[in-house]
Amino acid sequence: KKEFIDYILRVKSNMDSGMFRPLQVAAAQTLAMPDEWYSTNNAIYAERRKVVFEILDILNCTYDINQVGMFVWAKIPASIESCTSLTDSILYDKHVFITPGIIFGSAGAKYIRISLCTSKELLLEARDRIKA
């Protein structure tokens, strides 16, 4: 019956394209947090960003210090053929994973991306491995 198919399609549509309800609830709770919570988290990410900039300086990459978000993007040096050659060498030689920009499309071929979603301690360890 059309009535039952319409019910299924309504539920399926919400499941396929709607945001997971617990995530919506968590986001609403986060928006209700006091300003101090945001300041504390922003300070944590600022510290992580500084370490990522140190890593990028070691790799001779160029980047915008004013970028915001959970990731830092950087352009690889012109002397390096591709982002994957850089990220592969760091992975295999230093045991540090850096995301090659090419996985996001051809426009990312000369870029790398480093996540700020890890602890400062792990970023410091990555920096020290790359520097060594």
Provide a descriptive summary of the structure in words.
The protein is mainly alpha-helical and 132 residues long. It is 57% helix and 9% strand. It has five helices and three strands. It has a three-stranded antiparallel sheet, covered by helices on one side. Helix 3 packs parallel to helix 5. It is extended. It starts with a helix and ends with a helix.
Topology:
Layout: H1 2-17, H2 21-31, H3 35-58, E1 71-75, H4 83-94, E2 99-100, E3 111-115, H5 120-131
Antiparallel strand pairs: 1-3, 2-3
Helix pairs in contact: 3-5
Please describe the structure with a list of short key phrases separated by commas or semicolons.
5 helices; mainly alpha; 3-stranded antiparallel β-sheet; extended; 9% strand; 132 residues
